[in-house]
Automatic annotation (TrEMBL):
Top-level taxonomy: Bacteria, Bacillati, Actinomycetota, Actinomycetes, Streptosporangiales
Keywords: Lipoprotein, Signal
Protein's UniProt name: Lipoprotein LpqB
Lineage: superkingdom: Bacteria
Signal peptide: 1-20
Record has Transferase as a keyword: no
Length: 584
């Protein structure tokens, strides 16, 4: 396989411990535009070239050089790093099988070895920040995680110190991480093939293949766990990328013969094109893609497309900065972008004297509102003149506020059993019929909120599993009778803290409103490792909703609050009890 590159050439050399940093060409972090006519498949990156141990290096220098060589991604087999090891350790050391560890590691022994010493151990101090698993998932370390490290043992061979007991995993510092990995967003169709779901992973830089090949080959491997339970890979098993190049102002991708199987399935073919086009936006967002099979046109004719052809697959569903909705004096209204007053929605939710709270809205496939009402259950009314409330989910216990998915199904979780016993049951409502959904991890928890992401696959849950309120992220598996699985903790419990509200902003970002000694509104990336901008907090806020590029809130005085990027505005001063965007 080859990528046609137009190399910009070497710019400078600089030494860093055991590595040389060389600005060169090949792998972009992000590509916003083409660079002056250069090949969009070739963009600058910083090379890290490992160097072998220096003669008569001290044990600390050997360990420091070994750690620096671990970050030398030009040496993908870590051959240089192995020169710091004894022959026996070289034969057994295989970091590819272990999670990469990100840490602020330091190697500072209290005293140096005696001149005639033949064995020595260098202690490791510092905090583990995160791990990256073999699939590329970034997993932040818990604050309570044990940071006790085994020391690195060395022996003297032929007068030179070498490592005899090495860490099983690669140890990278945060700066190494930014040079050795790129954060990429892969896209996979949901099980129904109606939309895409994002899978944000870290992709190790491989200068031999280059970023475009690495990106597509990672896409072909399939989604990471646990997302893999809720999506599918539209590429047939065994499909390989043979070549990728720029030709006639298009990116030509040549695949192996397996891909030709999609010629017999138009729906699967369209899902594959959407998956490929959305993923390749990270490289060349404005360029069309042409797919060939073993160097020949795709069966049935030229296959040429680009991301703009697949807007209906957008995992965020909503357009950027859509209008919001809120309950004003007991009536659901749609906000106005100008100074005009809001407009009441059609149907029961927009009529006066309709007792309801915590509404959720679906715009597709039909405009509907779901809400809690004084009578038990989840009630639904069409956004149509003359509509009436209909109970879709009954439930014997207390129900969480409703949440719609992109398929027109409404979700809620019922408290089961006595108040002093943990227990929940997940329900989905489909055209007026309530269907129980298996959720093993929630059956022994109390659930306060259950929010389906706009991609229809992920869920954000406020749950108490016995240790206090926490936020979990799970996966809806839409097979058979459905199942909610793959629950992972996004925010662990904390003594004295209450989680007031959660909301999806986009397919990878969750807003969390908490209260301890004071209230906090935090923005979390579900893939970890990011530090999104967090709005300053107004302690009067008691509920929040979000959409791509927008945040709305309601406060205890009944004011509508809108975050403009720098401060909270209050376009409505009183009468507001709840805010919402469609879905999320």
């Amino acid at each position: 396989m080859s990528t046609r590159r137009y190399l910009a050439g070497l710019v400078a050399l600089g030494a860093l411990s055991a590595c040389t940093i060389v600005p060169s060409s090949g792998n972009p972090t992000t590509v916003e535009k083409e660079d002056g006519g250069s090949d969009p498949l070739s963009q600058p990156y910083v090379r890290v070239i490992a160097t072998a141990p220096k003669p008569d290096a001290t044990p600390v220098e050997i360990v420091q050089g070994f750690q620096a060589a671990m970050a030398g991604f030009d040496d993908t087999s870590r051959a240089i790093a192995r020169t710091y090891l004894t022959p026996e350790t070289q034969a057994t050391w295989n970091p590819a099988k272990a999670n990469t560890i990100i840490c602020d590691c330091k190697f500072t022994p209290a005293e140096m070895p005696d001149q005639d010493a033949t064995e020595y151990a260098v202690p490791i101090t510092g905090k583990q920040i995160a791990t990256i698993d073999p699939e590329g998932r970034y997993l932040p370390a818990a604050d309570s995680e044990n940071n006790a490290w085994d020391p690195i043992s060395l022996v003297k061979l032929n007068g030179q110190w070498r490592i005899s007991a090495a860490p099983a995993a690669l140890l990278l510092r945060p700066d190494d991480l930014s040079r050795a990995y790129r954060t990429v967003t892969l896209y996979y169709p949901d099980l129904a093939g109606q939309g895409l779901v994002s899978d944000r992973v870290r992709l190790a830089i491989d200068p031999v293949r280059g970023f475009p090949e690495s990106l597509i080959e990672r896409l072909l491997l399939g989604p990471s766990k646990p997302l893999s339970e809720g999506v599918r890979n539209a590429f047939p098993p065994g499909t390989e990328l043979r070549d990728i190049r720029v030709e006639d102002n298009a990116v030509v991708m040549d695949f192996s013969a397996q891909l030709a199987e999609l010629a017999a399935s138009p729906e699967s073919l369209r899902a594959m094109k959407a998956q490929l086009a959305w993923t390749f936006t990270a490289v060349a967002p404005q360029m069309p893609i042409v797919v060939t099979i073993n160097g020949e046109p795709f069966p049935g004719g030229t296959l040429r497309f680009q991301r703009g052809d697949f807007g209906e697959f957008d995992p965020s569903v909503l357009a950027k900065e859509p209008p919001g909705y809120y309950v004003l004096d007991g009536t659901l209204v749609k906000e106005s972008k100008s100074n005009e007053p809001p407009t009441q929605v059609l149907g029961a939710a927009g009529e006066p004297n309709q007792a309801f709270d915590h509404p959720a809205m679906a715009e597709l496939p039909a405009g509907r509102v779901a809400a809690l009402r004084p009578e038990p259950g989840i009630w639904v009314a069409d956004l149509a003149e003359g509509s009436q409330w209909q109970r879709w989910i009954s439930g014997q216990g207390k129900l969480t506020p409703p949440s719609w998915d992109r398929y027109g199904e409404v979700w809620s979780v019922e408290k089961t059993g006595p108040d002093d016993v943990l227990g929940s049951r997940v329900w989905r409502g489909v055209n007026g019929q309530a269907i129980p959904v298996t959720a093993p991890a929630l059956e022994t928890a109390n659930v306060k909120a259950f929010r389906v992401a706009r991609d229809g696959v992920r869920v954000a849950v406020i749950a108490d599993h016995g240790g206090g309120e926490q936020v979990d992220i799970g996966i809806i598996v839409r097979m058979g009778d459905y199942r909610v699985g793959g629950l992972e903790t996004l925010i662990p419990p904390e003594p004295g803290r209450t989680i007031l509200d959660i909301a999806w902003q986009d397919d990878g970002t969750v807003l969390v409103l908490t209260k301890a000694k004071q209230q906090s509104l935090l923005v979390y990336s579900i893939s970890g490792g990011d530090a999104p901008d967090t709005p300053t907090m107004d302690n009067r806020i008691n509920s929040v909703t979000a959409a791509p590029g927008a945040i709305l809130a309601a406060d205890e005085n009944g004011a509508l609050r809108r975050w403009d990027g720098t401060r909270w505005n209050a376009p409505v001063k009183s009468g507001v009890t709840y805010v919402l965007y469609p879905l999320g």
